């Protein structure tokens, strides 16, 4: 026993010193390649930033090279030394060190491999930091830092590291924000200058919104039976079906068109949701599918359609009673493991808050939910469509068109949302007002029904970066499908 105690008290000097993972030679080889041939910079600049270098002076050299090259000039030992300190060490000047880097440079062909090595080692160093933080917090956490919160925080840090190669957050230079803005404009231009975001498949809605914008929280609200879930499934399947991607220089997959979709269905089961989409795509009534009221050719069409649908990157989570923190953790995990470009939640009022205080007050709870959803959209850089129920006060008005004031239980929904969409179908309300058949009132009612039959409105009640307005759509109730309305000016002339 005494020997064990002595072993435990042995001085730390006996242990070998463990340095953080790094490779100074790889850093020198890459910087030398850049100084000799600036093409090497373009092979790594997509994924490698100055923070990924271990040596502080190498960070400075890489950053200066980047600024010079992006300005359209040539980075050489002579042009770079002007922007760096003269003396590096007591016996080595900066011009001498830069000249040595250039003299011992690797070829531009190997630049990508060295860049990847530097990047991977930086991730490992950050993983060590996250692990040390987790251990320290687990030992010394206060009362409010529960185990669930620690797991959530660790998952967030791991997600940032996996997606962005860093986990520190904080300020970024305006030049980086400008670069992202130019990239967004470039993507819109490459799509024939039509959309800067992801297309919904409804051209009139895309025209007003410019598609679904990254980092936006989009609230899709309506009274029951208006078709908001149908609209959400229509958009989800269109986005997933059109997904195209390419591999970036750092090995990640980048979405070029469409997207991978996460659908959190808190109300309907995955099977019910799949039946809806199957009915829409196969053009067979969902009620007929459920009852088996279909003939052989329709069954073959169902099988063919389902085989195509099986390849689509649409992921459904139908767990009921999710808390907002659980939803965020699952979304981060899916983004990290498979990738996600659009998240849909059906619907907000079925989510619960994660803190005990919020659960005591429904308004506070909903505020926490919408605030977290907006933060999650920014963190994952994807649009989030959150469905929401409208309050019953709509039913008490003569004009039942929804308004922002009808958003249920909290003004935070309107406040946190970047876009608020309302679904409205006059046909639903008019159907319930049918007068007695054979009366003049019934004839007038029939005329009104003919005008609104199969039509729906999507009202843009709020949009931070675009106009508000109303989009007219066609709605086929038996197929639960929304589509563009055929305008009279686009139809062929009628022969009398």
Query: What is the CATH homology-level superfamily of the largest domain?
Result: P-loop containing nucleotide triphosphate hydrolases
End-to-end gap: 107 Å
What share of residues are in beta strands? 5-15%
Specify the helix fraction band.
Answer: 40-55%
The value of Rg in angstroms is: 29 Å
**CATH level-3 fold name of the largest domain:** Rossmann fold
Number of strands: 13
**Class by SSE composition:** alpha/beta
User: What is the CATH architecture term of the largest domain?
Assistant: 3-Layer(aba) Sandwich
Envelope shape = elongated
* Widest β-sheet, arrangement of strands: 7-6-8-9-3-10-11-12-13
- What's the CATH class label of the largest domain? Alpha Beta
- Supply the number of structural domains: 2
Unreliable spans = 1-12, 167-171, 488-496
Number of helices: 20
What does the main sheet amount to?
9 strands, mixed
Indicate the mean pLDDT. Answer: 78
Question: What's the layout of helices and strands?
Answer:
Blueprint: H1 2-8, H2 24-36, H3 39-44, H4 56-70, H5 77-81, E1 87-89, E2 92-93, H6 94-103, H7 111-140, H8 147-164, H9 174-190, H10 203-209, E3 217-222, H11 228-241, E4 244-247, E5 253-257, E6 261-265, H12 270-282, H13 286-291, H14 296-309, E7 314-317, H15 324-337, E8 342-346, H16 356-360, H17 362-380, E9 384-389, H18 412-416, E10 419-424, H19 426-431, H20 440-452, E11 455-463, E12 469-476, E13 481-484
Parallel strand pairs: 3-9, 3-10, 6-7, 6-8, 8-9
Antiparallel strand pairs: 1-2, 4-5, 10-11, 11-12, 12-13
């Amino acid at each position: 026993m005494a020997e064990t105690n002595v072993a435990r008290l042995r001085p730390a000097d006996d242990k070998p010193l463990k340095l953080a993972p790094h490779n100074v030679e790889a850093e020198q080889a890459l910087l030398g390649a850049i100084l000799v041939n600036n093409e090497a910079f373009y092979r790594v600049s997509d994924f490698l930033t100055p923070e990924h270098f271990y040596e502080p002076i190498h960070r400075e050299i890489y950053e200066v090279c980047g600024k010079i090259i992006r300005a359209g000039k040539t980075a050489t030992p002579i042009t770079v030394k002007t922007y760096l300190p003269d003396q590096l060490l007591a016996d080595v000047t900066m011009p001498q060190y830069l000249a040595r880097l250039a003299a011992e440079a690797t070829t531009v062909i190997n630049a990508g491999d060295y860049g990847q090595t530097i990047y991977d080692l930086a991730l490992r160093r950050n993983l060590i930091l996250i692990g040390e933080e987790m251990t320290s917090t687990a030992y010394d956490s206060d009362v409010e830092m529960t185990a669930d919160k620690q797991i959530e925080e660790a998952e967030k840090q791991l997600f940032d590291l996996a997606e962005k190669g860093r986990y520190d957050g904080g300020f970024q230079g305006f030049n980086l924000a400008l670069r992202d803005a130019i990239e967004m404009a470039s993507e819109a231009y490459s799509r024939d200058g039509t959309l800067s975001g992801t297309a919904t498949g409804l051209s009139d809605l895309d025209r007003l919104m410019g598609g679904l914008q990254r980092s936006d929280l989009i609230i899709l609200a309506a009274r029951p039976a208006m078709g908001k879930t149908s609209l959400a499934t229509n958009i989800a399947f269109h986005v997933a079906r059109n997904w195209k991607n390419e591999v970036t220089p750092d090995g990640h997959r980048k979405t070029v068109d469409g997207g991978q979709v996460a659908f959190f269905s808190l109300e309907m089961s995955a099977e019910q949701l799949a039946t809806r989409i199957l009915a829409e795509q196969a053009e067979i009534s969902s009620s007929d599918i459920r009852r088996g009221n279909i003939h052989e050719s329709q069954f073959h069409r169902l099988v063919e359609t389902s085989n195509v649908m099986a390849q689509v990157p649409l992921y459904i989570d139908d767990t009921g009673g999710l808390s907002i923190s659980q939803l965020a953790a699952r979304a981060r995990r899916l983004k990290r493991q498979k990738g996600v470009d659009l998240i849909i939640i059906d619907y907000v009022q079925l989510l619960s808050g994660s803190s005990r205080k919020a659960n005591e007050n429904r308004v506070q709870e909903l505020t926490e939910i919408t605030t977290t959803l907006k933060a999650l959209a920014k963190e994952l850089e994807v649009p989030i469509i959150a469905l929401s129920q409208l309050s019953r006060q709509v039913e008490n008005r003569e004009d039942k068109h929804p308004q922002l004031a009808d958003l249920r239980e909290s003004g935070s929904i309107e406040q946190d949302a970047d876009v608020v969409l309302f679904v409205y179908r006059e046909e639903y309300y008019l159907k319930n007002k049918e007068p007695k058949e054979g009366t003049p009132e019934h004839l007038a009612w029939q005329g009104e029904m003919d005008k609104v039959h199969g039509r729906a409105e999507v009202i843009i009640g709020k949009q931070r970066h675009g106009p508000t307005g109303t989009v007219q759509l066609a709605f086929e109730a038996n197929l639960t499908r929304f589509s563009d309305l055929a305008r009279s000016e686009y139809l062929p002339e009628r022969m009398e």
